[in-house]
Amino acid sequence: MASKIVDVHTHVYPPQYVSILKTRSKVPYVRDTVPGQPSRLIILPGEDDPSSESTAKGRPIGPEYYDINKKIKFMNTHGIDISVISLANPWLDFLDRDEAKGLARDVNDAINSMCDAHPGRLFAFGALPLSAPSEVIVEEIHRLPSLKYTRGIIMGTSGLGNGLDDPELDPVYQALEQENLTIFLHPHYGLPKEVFGPRGADYGHVLPLALGFPLETTIAVTRMILSGVFDRFPKLSVLLAHSGGTLPFLAGRLESCILHDAHYSGPEAKVESRRSVWDILKTNILLDAVVYSELGVRAAATASGADRVLFGTDHPFFPPLEGAEGEEEQKWLSVTTNYKAIGDAFGPDKEQAEAVLGGNAIRLLRLTTD
Ligand code: 5CU
Question: Does the predicted interface ipTM exceed a cut of 0.90?
Answer without folding.
Answer: yes
